[in-house]
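ok, trying the design again with the full structure, not the truncated one.
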């Protein structure tokens, strides 16, 4: 990446972090109280997320280093993983800051086309793992609250879970098509039918069709020719979602000894689903806490514990966002 672009991303990330801290939606005295109550568990959770980001980086590395070009050092992959997520956290609409940053940084190693296809494929893998996690949470909820406890679900709950299952399966089926055949050209084809942008996208598609088809071929390459790395990449992303549930299990378990790891999976799944529905908000401000309280209530956890856990998780997120922005200058490789 050229130095001026790296500086722009760095300044943007730094400014966003400062703005985030100035507008933090909690009283700072309350923050001190929460950190005091969390005690040793707060640094433990921060370290835990370092391990989770390490899993994400391993997944990203399997996609980037596919044996067809120059190998990207794992340290750089890890830095791009953390910094990319940091930019996504502070960017409205999400995925609008971290992905361009990753592409521009990677093109100095593997070229623009491969960098773009690798970042797109990893984003697909990350999103797909969320849907796999949410789908498995639906199955877990039915097992725990219907088969294990021996009582049925009401009609509205059955309808809601049925609709969620159909939506998740449909999305995963669409992802499978994208993995097999690529989807970049199809996306531009669909955009060319939208009145406000069809003129620009149609012209762009006509001018760059060969490049876009090459990106699709590179996306499909991992699924069709390197199936083992493909499934390992997806498994690592899914496993990272499961490991992240330890955060809720540790925090809520301090107040509720009977709170199980299975409960933490349900809380994590449904709170993340709710917060992702308001993806337009930087760091899902408000929706994250609200989703956490609703999800906690769904497994008979007092809402106050859910809000407490959400605040600790928010503080952990702030720590890693700051780390991600600060390490953007590490391991530079200019075009």
């Amino acid at each position: 990446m050229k130095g001026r672009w790296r500086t722009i991303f760095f300044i943007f990330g730094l400014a966003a972090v400062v703005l985030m801290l100035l507008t933090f939606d909690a009283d700072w005295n309350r923050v001190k109280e929460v950190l005091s109550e969390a005690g040793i568990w707060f640094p433990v959770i921060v370290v835990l997320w370092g391990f989770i980001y390490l899993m994400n980086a391993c997944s990203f590395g399997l996609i980037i280093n596919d044996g067809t070009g120059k190998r990207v050092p794992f340290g750089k992959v890890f830095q791009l993983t953390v910094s990319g997520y940091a930019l996504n956290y502070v960017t409205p609409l999400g995925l609008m800051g971290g992905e361009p940053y990753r592409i521009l940084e990677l093109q100095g190693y593997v070229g623009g086309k491969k960098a773009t296809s690798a970042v797109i494929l990893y984003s697909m893998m990350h999103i797909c793992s969320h849907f796999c996690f949410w789908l498995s949470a639906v199955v877990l909820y039915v097992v725990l609250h219907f088969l294990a406890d021996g009582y049925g679900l009401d009609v509205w709950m059955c309808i809601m879970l049925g609709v969620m299952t159909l939506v998740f399966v449909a999305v995963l089926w669409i992802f499978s098509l994208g993995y097999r055949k690529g989807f970049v050209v199809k996306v531009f084809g669909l955009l060319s039918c939208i009145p406000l942008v069809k003129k620009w996208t149609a012209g762009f598609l006509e001018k760059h069709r060969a490049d876009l088809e090459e990106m699709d071929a590179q996306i499909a390459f991992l699924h069709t020719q390197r199936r083992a790395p493909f499934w390992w990449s997806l498994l690592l992303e899914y496993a990272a979602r499961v490991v992240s549930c330890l955060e809720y299990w540790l925090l809520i378990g301090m107040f509720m000894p009977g709170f199980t790891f299975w409960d933490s999976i349900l809380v994590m799944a449904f709170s993340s689903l709710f917060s992702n529905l308001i993806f337009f908000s930087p760091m899902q401000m408000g929706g994250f806490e609200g989703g956490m309280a609703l999800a906690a209530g769904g497994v008979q956890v007092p809402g106050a514990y859910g809000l407490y856990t959400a605040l600790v998780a928010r503080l952990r997120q702030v720590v890693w966002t700051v780390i991600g922005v600060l390490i953007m200058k590490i391991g530079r490789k200019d075009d």
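Keeping the full-length input from now on. The first helix runs from residue 3 to 22.
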